[in-house]
Design goal:
With about 325 residues, this protein is α+β, with helices and mostly antiparallel strands. Helices cover about 30% and strands about 20% of the residues. Helix 2 (about 25-45) runs antiparallel to helix 3 (about 70-85) and helix 4 packs across helix 7 (about 320-335). The protein starts with 7 loop residues before the first helix and ends with a helix. The protein binds 2,6-di-O-phosphono-beta-D-fructofuranose.
Length: about 325
């Protein structure tokens, strides 16, 4: 990095004018706090095996996933951190069936935070990459505030993720491009390393759980078959990369281009079943991808136009380079 590095707090302050005056204090406060919490979570993850933090607590969460000790710890850590900002009027978390209302922050400027505190947690026990995903939506100035989060993804005023890999990366948007930071673990500060990230128009890599191919929509199957079929002129075959943690797969896609896909299970075509959660996985990643010049689709429509009607609603997603996502949609159209 040449010159004096820009810290996350300095960068956030420079983005303040991009957010409406009503919500700027709330957004600055919760995004800055998530940055500080990320440094704490990174430390905990790095030492989890030494502190008996790995493994399950027993029981499943609202999404039916087996809950790990670090899922609960991550949820409680993020909740406590957001509560103390005085700006988060409601917290919607993968690890809580109902939204958590914080009435003391429910004034006119309060925001709602949707979060998956430890995403990709099946990677935890094998020391693989995991992440934190968050989305900030305007509150409604009332209690309960959580219902204000029910609506389309275009309502989001900020979104971001943290990727706990060899380095801890923090990536966020407030609607003025996407900016990436790496944690300096000696000072606990995130420093700007990737200003204004732009995704390539087209990539060479796709990420998807191919073990589910039998249950995909015929358009999805035909599209992946197309990506695997050699054609030198159009740069095929694409390579397959899949880590099993959405944050890691989206981060690679954002920087290198290509696709990350989690299509619905269409075994019963009348009742397609998606896996990833709209409010705290699919919509925030859709916002980030669009802000970087990419696209995020359900296969048949724009992700950010999908209206949340339930806090833990699921949605299919195909996100990445704009030309690649458009081609995927074309395959869905042809097969419909
Ligand atoms: P996980 O179940 O490990 O929490 O949030 C769901 C998620 O991980 C995503 O991070 C990841 O992309 C996806 O599920 C992986 O699902 P599969 O194991 O079905 O491929």
């Amino acid at each position: 990095m040449a010159g004096t590095p820009v810290t996350l707090s300095e960068h956030l302050a420079s983005q303040r004018a991009a957010v409406s005056a009503d919500h700027a204090p709330g957004v600055m406060s919760v995004v800055g706090r998530i940055g500080r919490l990320a440094a704490v979570i990174a430390q905990e993850l790095a030492h989890a095996a030494l502190r008996d933090r790995l493994g399950y607590v027993g029981g499943v969460n609202v999404s039916g996933d087996e809950v790990k000790k670090l899922d609960i710890w991550g949820h409680e850590t993020v909740l406590a951190g957001l509560r103390s900002t005085g700006a988060c009027a409601a917290f919607i978390s993968e690890e809580a069936t109902e939204p958590i209302e914080i009435p003391e922050a429910g004034g006119a400027h309060g925001v709602v935070v949707c979060c998956d505190p430890v995403d990709g947690s099946s990677n935890l026990d094998v020391n693989g990459a995991v992440g934190t995903i968050f989305s900030v939506r305007p509150g409604n100035g009332r209690t309960p505030a959580a219902p204000a989060a029910l609506g389309p993804g275009t309502d989001q005023i900020a979104a971001g993720y943290v990727m706990y890999g060899p380095g801890t990366a923090f990536v966020y948007t407030v609607g003025t491009g996407v900016h990436g930071f790496i944690l300096n673990s000696e000072t606990g500060e995130f420093l700007l390393t990737h200003p204004d990230i732009r995704i390539p128009r087209r990539g060479k890599v796709y990420g998807i759980n191919e073990g589910n191919a039998h249950s995909w929509h015929p358009g999805q199957r035909a599209f992946v078959e197309h990506l695997r079929t050699p054609d030198k002129a159009s740069g095929r075959p694409y390579s397959l990369r899949y880590s099993g943690a959405m944050v890691a797969d989206v981060h690679r896609t954002l920087l290198d281009g290509g696709l990350f896909m989690y299509p619905a299970d269409c075994s019963d075509p009348a009742k397609p079943k998606a896996k990833l959660r709209l409010l705290y996985e699919v919509a925030p990643m859709g916002f980030i991808l669009e802000q970087a010049g990419g696209r995020a689709s359900t296969g048949t429509g724009r992700v950010l136009d999908v209206r949340a009607t339930d806090y833990h609603q699921r949605a299919p997603v195909i996100l990445g380079s704009p030309d690649d996502v458009s081609l995927a949609e074309e395959f869905y159209r042809r097969a419909s």
